[in-house]
Amino acid sequence: MSTGAELTLKTTEETSNTLTFEYNGPELAKGTYSIKIENIVSDQATPIVDPIVLTYEIGKISLAKTEYTLLSDNKTVTAEEGGIPDGWKLTLEKDGVAEEHNGGSGSRGFLYTNSNVQSAVYMRNWEGNAVLTSSPVKIQKGDVELRAYTAGWGTGGSFKMTLKNAAGEEVLSKSISINTVLEKNRQGNFQADPFRFTSDGGEYTFSIELEGSSNELLCAGFEVYSYKESAGDKVESEVVLTETFASCGGNMPAEGSGWIVYENNNPLAAGSGRSGTSGILNLGTGGMAAAFFARECGTNDAANMRITYGEQEGGPKLELNAGTYEISYKTATWNDEGGNAGGTSKVFFQLVDASTGDAVITKEHVNSTAANYKNGANANPNVEADKVSFSFTTDGGTYILKAWGTQNTVWGLSTIRTLQRLLS
After folding, report:
1. Is residue 408 a contact partner of residue 335, using CB atoms and an 8 Å limit?
2. Is 39 left (phi over 0), alpha (psi -120 to 50) or beta?
3. Calpha distance 364→368 (Å, rounded)
């Protein structure tokens, strides 16, 4: 980089032509920077002499407008509960043998009448890994966007999605992290994950399967769109919400702050002190001046010991315009005693649609064993807290932020900022 800092290679995927790098240095000031990529060789190990130099701006976002045209709707349509959708094949793979499954029990079709899909296929791995495959679909030549509709059935996890051309060659292979978790036997909208690729024209086959140890997930098929983008001027990136909790002075968030702390599902009085309950702790370590402390939940649901933003009566609301946002926060173990032995504490984050009460994002993070701020065998108050960050695209709306953790965790330094604003 132009600051002299180095970027670290983060991930490589055999099925991707993309390399991901990360920067772990101090926060960069707003301005124009360049990245130089050197020592590049071809797939034949032939050196490419000229380095690649990329220029970008920190603190700026693009105003953009994208026009979409639906080319084909390939969402699943199940005639009756328990059946397999028309035009789809469900196989169960066990001990290297794949057998077609006709539904009725186990992995099968579910109806979703009050949702953004008509039906979905419930996929589990108890009888063998479930693989759902579409009939060949014609896709026109050019740049297209595939949107896969998925959800969790009472749990999260991930799918592996694959798109193959008529010759059986993979043209797209992606992992889909399930952020939308529906209660079992309850209705709700599915997440739609977009994947762009360049079609050569012709027939393509879509398949999806459970990834790793994932189980009990839902797939409702996919849609294909063509798109046209127009980019406008760059404007300042906007920080919609940021909170360090430093102004709380170790007390509950003040009236009018928008934040509420719950203990055993009961809201604690704004501005009151913390006495053996969940609340705000002054830290001064791990990159957090202060943080929300989720007390040991015992036999209670961990979500009953939570902090929320946007539902305080008379307080500010979390209103997002159409666009893409980066959500980030820090989290760590408070101690490794009892249920946290070995540093296995978890932190959960949700973004809830205020109008419907449905969670549009659910994130689960297992805290690293390094950061442990109070006491216990692995006490280490000087380690940086884990940082969690991800992007979220919305058509606009009002939301409620929720965070909680398993026994004795801390959560703080939460920020929501715009990455791209969509023009109407």
Report:
1. yes
2. left
3. 13
